[in-house]
Request: fold
Amino acid sequence: MLAIFHKAFAHPPEELNSPASKKQKLPEETLRDFMSSHPDNTSSMSFAQAAVLAYVRPENLYSQPQRLFCGFDDVYCIFLGTLNNLCSLIRQYGLSKGTNEAMFVIEAYRTLRDRGPYPADQVVKDLDGSFAFVVYDSRAGTVFAALGSDGGVKLYWGIAADGSVVISDDLQVIKAGCAKSFAPFPQGCMFHSEGGLMSFEHPMNKMKAMPRIDSEGAICGAYFKVDKYTRVNSIPRRGSASNWMEWDEH
Reply:
């Protein structure tokens, strides 16, 4: 999968951009590389200059990790992996039995966006399984991404030549497109374009940028981990007052 978002719609941590990067590609070049590496089973959707989503269709129903893509009510989701507790989540949210993981993530996102009955970190923490997903709300122009904590699915993110954010499970495409300005997406974390990066396992702790040096001695995009010794300044709100903007305090 590949997701690219213009810098006006997604604001990743500054430490992800390496001063050593000199050969980053433009988003359209990275998309072209991704499509050419999977020529027979890749489809993509572009949203003017705001975003592009590309998806590699599975070769068969049993391909691992599972790859899903769907959209509803101007919200689109690419999902990798499996949720072990999908059936119980479907019952909890009152969804139909045929709902798959990508459909569920869209419904969970819409519930958070429109009603905010639970804090976002709790919603993602309740997902049991190996997973990664990227959600794009084309009406609101917002991005929501997360990676499970068990390491079963890999995800990477980086910065393109024009400052756009690139998210993919294809390490080679990320390396080619973002040069030194990329890093593994941190496990057990989620990113929202309005609130930034935070751990859904430790929402009361701040994230700390860890410098990365490659084999050539060049500075790469920083990896982020939970800072166990630094806590946020306030307790996240609960109930209907909870919303995405709480992330600004992290």
Notes: The chain has a mean pLDDT of 89. Helices lie at 27-37, 86-93, 101-114, 120-125, 171-178. DSSP finds five helices and 14 strands in the chain.
